[in-house]
Amino acid sequence: MNRKKILIVGGYGAVGRQIAQILLDRHPDLDIALGGRSPGKAAPFESERVQTVVIDNNADDPLLNTDDNVSLIINSVNDLQDRLLLSAVRRKIPLIDLTRWTEIFQQSVSKLENIELYAPVVLSSGWMAGTASLFAMLHSASLQNVSIHIHALYSLSDKAGPDSAAYMDRMTIPFHITEPEGRRLVFPMTDPVKVQFPDGYTAQCYRLDTPDHVTLPKAEHVDSASFRISFDSKASTYALVGLVKSGIWKLISGERFRPLRRSLLYNPGTGSAHHILIHLKGRDHNGQWVERRIAISDPLGQTHLTALGAAVQAEKLLQAPGDEPLAPGIYYPEDLPDARMDASAITNFFKQYGVLIDIN
Q1: Which InterPro entries would you find in this protein's record (predicted)?
Q2: Which end of the chain has less Cβ packing within 10 Å, N or C?
Q3: How far apart are CA 273 and CA 269, in angstroms?
Q4: Are 103 and 179 in a shared domain?
Q5: Which helix (H) or strand (E) holds 207?
């Protein structure tokens, strides 16, 4: 890889600094700028290849004072008004964004569809920077009429940044899912499914609105997709379900009660493993129904798994041959595998960093 420079916005945060460390270790010719709102803030680790820059996603043009030689931007903090997104598009800089919940994600797609793009924009707001969708696509590509069910076990003692709690503000808002019969409106924290996770923990998982169930059915071979979540505390899970079903959660919606809502489920600790179970069902080349299960566990937790998801996408863009760059357009993490980045290469990438992956 020729010497390149990337900008990680939110580079001081739990996810951003791990992305930086992973890419620095893997690519000696890579320079990294860590962007944040605090001028003069020291980098979270020392390296002569790392510098810090001031980037404020609330500014009209967040990249106004950014070097012109940036090869890639990775955004790991909220960009609710798409200011960083559009700032990167105007400068024709490839962007990977990890931060958008479904409504903002769809807002961004609508804007981009009306703009001529000169560089790839990878919208990676699915679970763990699209890691769940990426593995679902890798292991369903040989099937047809596929249904994809993603289940996540969220540890309440895991490390987490404040942006990771945004989903809690969406618990009373219905959303559409795609099924073989068509689109259907559902509510968060409904339709429980009993799941046994890779660590042996068994729990009821409930619907949650994530971009995964929006992007996966765009593939021709996928008929339906769903996402469900449970917490590693059954008491917390049932309490949240009760608050949502009773209407109390809706009563405490809005900015006034945000601290209260977050105090109930956002108490990040020192770290804990994160688990994902993906269930696939589809027809093989003989027309026979087959099922596949992919179990993913990261002992270092959800911020580490998110950072790995972003890093594998960054490598895809950075390592593209100069005469065959990724074409301008909107991409999702599950769009990225090709002959240069197949299922075994991606699986080995995650395993190299201690992620446990079991496929049957």
Answers
A1: NAD(P)-bd_dom_sf
A2: C
A3: 12
A4: no
A5: strand 202-207
Written as six digits, the tokens of 231 are 């917490």
Cα angle, residue 81 at apex, residues 76 and 85 outer, rounded to 5°: 55
Q: What angle do CA 166, 149, 144 make, to 5 degrees?
A: 135
The residue range of the domain holding 38 is 4-127+303-341
Q: Give the chain's domain count.
A: 2
Q: Which pTM was predicted?
A: 0.93
Could you tell me if 164 and 258 lie in one domain?
Answer: yes
Tell me: do 187 and 283 sit in the same domain. yes
Task: Give whole-number Cα distances, 225 to 114, 191, 213, in Å.
Answer: 27, 14, 5
Q: Exposure pattern of 54-84 as b/e (b: 16+ CB <10 Å)?
A: ebbbeeeebbeebeeebbbbbbbbbbeebbb
Residue 17 has φ and ψ, to the nearest 5°, of -70, -30
- Position 352 in a domain: no
CATH number where 328 lies: 3.40.50.720
Q: Are residues 223 and 308 in the same domain?
A: no
pLDDT of the residue at 264: 63
Strand-strand pairing, 182-186 and 95-97: unpaired
